[in-house]
Amino acid sequence: NEQGMIVEGKWDEIEKVVEEQYPDDYKNIEESLYPLIAEAKKDEPDTETLKGLVQETKDKMMKFQEKLHTS
Fold it and tell me: What are the contacts of 27-36 at 24+ separation with CB within 8 A?
């Protein structure tokens, strides 16, 4: 699915920096991000699964963004 490829591409742009500088945050984000990408790439992704993973990943990314702004 195209949306899965877009999400993966955007993460790939910043992945190495996050992994090197914020390893705990990286691990936390990836625990929901990779399942989200995998589900989104399916020909017929499960909508309910996607909704949960999108929300979980979004929450983690927002917390990470807040951490960066307060550092």
Answer: 28/60, 28/64, 29/57, 29/60, 29/61, 29/64, 32/56, 32/57, 32/60, 33/7, 33/57, 33/60, 36/4, 36/7
SS (H, E, C) the chain: CHHHHHHHHHHHHHHHHHHHHCHHHHHHHHHHHHHHHHHHHCCCCCHHHHHHHHHHHHHHHHHHHHHHHHC
Q: What is the pTM of this model?
A: 0.82
pLDDT at 52: 96
